[in-house]
Amino acid sequence: MHARSLSDLPTPAIAAIGALVVVQLSLQVWGLVDLARRKRVLGGRKWVWLLVILLGEIAGVVVYLAVGRNVPPEAPDPLASAPRDATRAERAVDVLYGKRQ
Questions:
Q1: What does the domain layout of the chain look like in residue ranges?
Q2: What is the pLDDT of residues 40-98, one digit of tens each?
Q3: Is 57 left (phi over 0), alpha (psi -120 to 50) or beta?
Q4: Residue 41 region by backbone torsions, left for phi larger than 0, else alpha for psi between -120 and 50, else beta
Q5: Rounded Cα gap, residues 68 and 5, in angstroms
Q6: Measured between alpha carbons, how far is 49 from 47 in angstroms, rounded to an integer?
């Protein structure tokens, strides 16, 4: 038995399809809003994650939310921790060769 149109499907099947559509669209909107608000994403290229969210359907959004948002923290700048009165070159030397005695 094959349904020729959507109206031929049983009501529970239509409700399940409708629920899946609502879930998919909600997740995609959430993922797109989150992507737009983030300054950085894993890999550094937002347009790749945009394609993953839009073309990957539910799986693409789940991958973005689970993986793409997890950006490793930036390493602290070792030159920034040197005293303010030292020049940048002196700070670089201190970082490379250790603090002067």
A1: 6-70, 75-101
A2: 898 888 999 999 999 998 999 999 999 998 877 776 666 566 556 667 777 778 788 88
A3: left
A4: beta
A5: 39
A6: 5
Beta-carbon contacts of 27 under 8 Å, excluding residues fewer than 6 positions away, are: 58, 61, 62, 65
User: Please, are residues 42 and 71 in contact by the beta-carbon 8 Å criterion?
Assistant: yes
Cβ neighbours around 95 below 10 Å, total:
14
69 DSSP 8-state letter: T
Q: Is 63 exposed, middle or buried (0-12, 13-18, 19+ CB in 10 A)?
A: middle
pTM recorded for the entire structure: 0.63
Give me the residue label for tokens 């921790």.
Answer: 81
Q: Is 80 helix (H, G, I), strand (E, B) or coil?
A: helix
